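In response to reviewer comment 3 from the previous cycle, which asked for concrete evidence that the modeling workflow produces usable outputs, we include below a single protein chain processed end to end. The sequence was submitted unchanged, and the resulting structure tokens are shown without manual editing.
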Amino acid sequence: MLDTLANFRDLGALPTVHGGATRRGVLYRSDAPLAGDRRPEAPSWPPALVLDLRSADEPVTPHALDLPGTTVRRIPLMAEARPGTFHALQAEGSLSLDGLYSALVQRTAAILPEVLELMLATPGATLVHCTAGKDRTGVVVAVLLAAAGVTRAAIVEDYRLTGTNMERIRPRMPPADRQVTALSAGFTTGDEAPAATISTAMDLLDRAGGVAQWLDAAGVRPAVRRAWRARMVA
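The workflow returned the following structure tokens.
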């Protein structure tokens, strides 16, 4: 098993729709940190803020990054992302990746004001993670990048990078979470992080009238949006 994060990346140097680029050392994403992990290649580590999106029944205590100088906040995004629930939804014929990601977008809207306020109130880098760093992290990060003005093509490409890391991620996951990943992978055609999947999430923002209107509906104040863009974009 790897002794370093298998799905870590600094979300800097991504192009924006206004011709700029995101700053390094502001927003990181990854799979779940484990005790004994080596330091990843990052401008600053450990991060100042960790947003852990895992559910209440996942083994998350103590958090590997619960260290002096780091604030770890548990913000469960989707309790349904567990093996038993996935099996039940499959049996009903009501489970699909499109449906899962649509639900994740709705949950992200509910937590986004809190998330942005936390990030803006914390000097230093923020790490967003769940277990694999694919579905829950993928949607939250996509929305954060969209709110900063990152191009859709760059958001999709960042999401797809997770698919290339899945072989290294799986051995680091608890058995129950490997079951969830295997179930969700069953809906794809071999690509475990297909562009069409994250595009489902982005389409929901478009249908709401665009990112700005979607953020308005989620309760994110214009001043917070401006502050986040100024923080994230060079």
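The chain has one domain: 9-228. We consider this sufficient to address the reviewer's concern, and the full set will be provided in the supplementary archive.
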